[in-house]
Amino acid sequence: MKKGKQTFELEQPPKIIGAYSTAGPFEAKGNFKEYFDTVLKDDEWGEKTHEKTELKIHKFTIANALDRAKRPIEEVDAMMCGDLLNQIISSSFAARDFDTVFLGVYGACSTFGEALSLASLLISSGNMKTITCSTCSHYSTAERQYRYPLELGTQPTPTSQWTVTGSGCSVLSIEGEGPRITSCTLGKVIDKGIIDVNNMGAAMAPAACETIYAHLNDLGRDPNYYDLIVTGDLGKFGKNVLLHLMEEKGIKLTNYDDCGALIYKTEQKTVQGGSGAGCSSLVFNSYLYKEMQKKNLNKILLVPTGALLSKLSSLQGESIPGIAHAVAIEV
Amino acid sequence: MKKGKQTFELEQPPKIIGAYSTAGPFEAKGNFKEYFDTVLKDDEWGEKTHEKTELKIHKFTIANALDRAKRPIEEVDAMMCGDLLNQIISSSFAARDFDTVFLGVYGACSTFGEALSLASLLISSGNMKTITCSTCSHYSTAERQYRYPLELGTQPTPTSQWTVTGSGCSVLSIEGEGPRITSCTLGKVIDKGIIDVNNMGAAMAPAACETIYAHLNDLGRDPNYYDLIVTGDLGKFGKNVLLHLMEEKGIKLTNYDDCGALIYKTEQKTVQGGSGAGCSSLVFNSYLYKEMQKKNLNKILLVPTGALLSKLSSLQGESIPGIAHAVAIEV
After folding, report:
1. Is residue B256 within 8 Å of residue B224, measured between CB atoms?
2. Can you tell me the mean pLDDT for B164-192?
């Protein structure tokens, strides 16, 4: 049932009956090593290009999530996925190996939130029963597509972030057991005129603020309803921007963090932390999901955030629009 | 209600209460000039780059479709759109100017079908009331992104197609009047190993065949139920491949055509015809929609088709997977 302009309460909440996470070796040096289901030994995983590695990670993660959920592909109504590569090839090529409907979605690093939201609406309404939601990213493919060839050894700027190598997949179903998706708030595109392509946190924080604010308003809910409100990949700088923007709206968040700010250790020198379409899906399907299973976290609001730029749009002088989708997940 | 593995009968069929089409000057020299709502005088429309032109066309088309539908943006639950440019910037940047939820979707030239299908499911189930579905493409942006700089004057091969400059937008709503979307069949990714990036028709025809076959099978329906079965952009060669593949399955289509094969005149030398994410949405929102309004066509099956490659995937030796989504539209 729609509440307000952007929020949907799910009358038949889908459950996340299976989750799987695959992380790169650098990610395993961060804060969540013990939570990752599989950690790669190297960045290539036997593939000739990093794009093929990213595809392999994505396929592997989806297959293992289905295995965890004990659902054969015949019982999966659709796979909903997206990634950062041009024409989302890590997703569409992964779908070749799964005999089910493919629904490609794109919202940059907010894609996991878009997938969870749309899948929840499709399941809650009875149209579908089981859907996989997944995203992936790879440091080496994102760097060369969006920024510079790795071989150049370009220095990061003070507000830059590190694209996560990894993938997470959640299997949503009306049948089975697991944390429930109880509501979602879909995001609008917000553009505050940021043009620095090395400051995604600033570009995305206003969108995250608008979506969280809409979510709380639409449901008449206090932020402390949640054990944790967690954005996707604002990074440490963007996280502070968000806290500031929320305070401007009169809301002081005391239970807030960011997947990108959380994933790496300070000594890993990722500057502001992690980013990438795989960032929020990796952290959710490892750390957050397992902490929910242990009931250390019972109610979270996951808010994947995306910067909707392309390399070409920035070269043509465009600013960087942001978007964020919020998904309430409860044990 | 789900029928078979991939098809959904819509119990509360959304209606297409407004449609708008914007075409480039070359497209207006083709078969549908009198059907286009706006025809550009030149390929630039006052913009400095063709990417900015494509964005302007998309925004203009969405705004005018809403105008036709007499729906202010406050009554629009979401806009669902996608395009061929890297990171679908013609869609996400367009969404900046509309104060509503943005849902980016991507299935290459099948995107319009994915948008119509997902929007129909969201509306039919009562979650949303009004959604805009749109796609766009531009010959000059697609050529330089996927193939060669235009300045090279590269010769087309015998199976190549011409990317349509244009955009189409349909406004779907549970309230109002217009042709109804009565069912949809979502597609799987099908890869028959085609590697020729200048033969999209062959790459996509197997997916179109599988989707049309699933649609007819799932609903126990004869192809002659429809006045017209129309694929997105297989082109003339791909159209013949599809007819052949359907005959192999024991189905002789006598009421079949393809938007790409239809849009241009032979003397325009587009080789196999039109392609691009804007192809099926432009033809549907002009020719097909207006013929349905006149009741010259009462039941059509629109099957936008997509080739899920990127320039990089082909350079790395990957084959070209295809996908197609079928949407039944009835007066």
Report:
1. no
2. 98
